[in-house]
Amino acid sequence: MKMYFYFLFLFLVLQCNGNLNLPTNTIQIPSNRMYNNFIRSEKYYVKQQLPRVFTLHGPSETFVKLPGLTIPFYHTQPLLYKIKFEGKCFSPHSKAIWLYLRLMIDDYLLYINRVLPNTADRYKYIGEYPDNDGNDYLGGLYWHSNSVSVITCSFSDIIYLNPGLHVVDVSVRGGLGDSGAFPTYVHGGVLTVEMIEYDQYADIGLTPMNATFSG
Known about the structure:
mainly beta
């Protein structure tokens, strides 16, 4: 009897799923998607911050690279990069500090699905705010504190890159001009990069891109 009700329930669920009333913005995944997206290779790379402690001495409109985390890659097929940074951010101050961390690809700053030059006027290319402090909330990591504190500063991003030579870095800057207290510190950082090569006919919802800026 229990098996009867189980199969009856399963039948009703399948019948209902055939006539779903989905929101208009729903992304529907075809049932054969897993077969179309065959992974040809998958590799991991890990690098540690050296020296272990990086000192941020003052505010800046541009980012500087954390030492020891640069990883260059060369590949002849498009690869999906899954990149994660994790470290500790420390403020010894009982007054306000602002700190931003962001991934760099080929010396460009990664803003979710595009790259921008590491220049003081890059806010012009986003246009949402008339300054870098407002726009640098997008992606990466933003930390604000008003007390002596240490946090785990962790963030991740993905980018699907065309074949070629590509260099991954993690960068940092202090914000809000003279309003912030310094120095602040980033230490013990670890950069992890997972690289995935898909079958040439795979549809993963992303298109391979070049890490170049076109204005």
